[in-house]
Each structure stands twice: as structure tokens, then as C-alpha cells.
Design a protein that fits this description.
There is one protein chain. The chain has one domain: Spore Coat Polysaccharide Biosynthesis Protein SpsA, Chain A (Alpha-Beta Complex). The C terminus is likely disordered. Helix 2 packs parallel to helix 3. Strands 3-2-1-4-6-5-7 form a 7-stranded mixed β-sheet, with helices on both faces. The longest helix is centred in the first third of the chain and has 21 residues. Helix 3 links the parallel strand 2 and strand 3. The protein is of the alpha/beta class. It is globular and about 45 Å long. Helix content is 43%, strand content 15%.
């Protein structure tokens, strides 16, 4: 059980489900996008629980996000900052204050499994390295472990993976890179809908119908 040994707090920043996945607006209705967002968050929470990560913090969103987070054993916090990176920075600071290292993980990873989380933590060598999981597209970062006390600031967004590597070099802190399909594949654009259905037939329907979020 990695977290009991390493004291890691998992952090998932979220928007309200109704505000997520705007780039899918031409392919899906607002209700469908909200349902998919809820389904992916549920899968991430299940993967973290399966990897014995505790505590798990879901930060931001609305009542539906809060209900799902708590239903899956997570703790829910109101929005903490002005934007994604500010919110995550504040959440990392709170994790440090409680004696934890901080593990950011995106809430839109439809294929993530406990084994992906285990492998990621193993790559950190006992939460001793800044550890990064790159997104397969756009140069983003889908997961990031910041060891307790390391002054590493999130720079999420396009090309964030390279920004994080440069920041680690400036800090002269050790860095590990963890590759896995579950952490590499996020769902953002319409092309993902078709390609992911080939990877896991019926994926989109399952995401929309297994969360307690009404389907259209």
C-alpha cells in the first residue's frame, strides 16, 4: 500500500461537470459532456482507491462533483485559487503542511487503473523524485508527484511537460518520467471519441451511464 508508506495526498482539480469538455461541443450535448466528465472522474477515483491512495482530494466543481467525490471515498474542497495552477499550488501547499507529498492527477483519464498509479509511485522512488506523466498529445502533464517540501510549482497547460522538466533542472532536483497508457490518454477532442471506442468498445456509453449522472 504505497501511500501508507510514503504519505502522499492525491489532488484532482475539477470544474463543474457542465463546464468541462468544451472542445467536444460539436459532437456531444451539454448533458452528454457532463456525464462523460463524471464518468472519467469516477474512474480516476476508483483507480486511486484501488492503489490505496489516501487522502484523495477533489478540489473545485459543484454539488455534483462533491457528491461523486464523497461517494467514492474522496474529500471535496471548494475552489482554492484564481485558475488551475493557482488552485493546484495552494492544494500542494496544504498537503505539505499536513506532512504529505502531493500527487496531482487529471480527472479526465478514461483508461487509468490502479496499476498505473502503482507504477507511477514506484517511479518516484519512495516519493523522492519529482515524477511526471506526460500526456500523449499537446505536451501536457497528466500526473505529477511533488515530494514533500520541494518548491516545485505546477505549470499545467500546453507544453507543460517540457516546462516542468526545465523547472526541475533549475531547481537541481531529481526527476522521473512515468509512461503508461492509463496516465497518457486523456479525453479532450472529438477525435478521441472514435479512437477510444476502438481501444475499449462501448467506453463512451459506459462513462455516461455508470455515474448516477443522467444521460440525455
Amino acid at each position: 500500500m504505497p501511500n501508507q508508506e510514503y504519505n502522499i495526498a492525491a489532488i484532482i482539480p475539477m470544474k463543474p461537470f457542465t463546464e468541462g469538455k468544451s472542445r467536444l461541443a460539436r459532437s456531444l450535448t451539454p448533458a452528454q459532456r457532463a456525464s462523460i466528465s463524471a464518468g472519467m472522474l469516477r474512474r480516476v477515483l476508483i483507480a486511486l482507491r484501488g492503489a490505496s491512495l489516501d487522502p484523495v482530494w477533489v478540489v473545485g466543481g459543484d454539488e455534483r462533483v462533491k457528491h461523486l467525490a464523497r461517494n467514492q471515498g474522496g474529500l471535496w474542497f471548494e475552489e482554492m485559487g484564481r485558475n488551475l495552477n493557482d488552485t493546484l499550488s495552494k492544494a500542494i501547499d496544504q498537503a505539505f503542511q499536513r506532512g504529505n507529498s502531493a500527487l496531482y492527477i487529471a480527472g479526465d483519464l478514461p483508461f487509468v487503473k490502479p496499476s498505473d498509479i502503482h507504477s507511477f509511485i514506484q517511479a518516484s522512488r519512495g516519493a523522492g523524485n519529482v515524477t511526471l506523466a506526460p500526456a500523449r498529445r499537446d505536451g501536457g502533464t497528466n500526473a505529477m508527484l511533488v515530494p514533500h517540501g520541494v518548491p516545485f510549482k505546477p505549470e499545467l497547460g500546453r507544453n507543460s511537460f517540457n516546462k516542468h522538466l526545465r523547472q526541475a533542472a533549475k531547481l537541481e532536483t531529481s526527476v522521473a518520467i512515468a509512461y503508461s497508457p492509463g496516465l497518457g490518454f486523456d479525453l479532450d477532442v472529438a477525435d478521441d471519441l472514435e479512437s477510444y471506442q476502438h481501444i475499449e468498445p462501448g467506453l463512451i456509453e459506459r462513462l455516461m451511464h455508470t455515474t448516477g449522472t443522467p444521460a440525455p
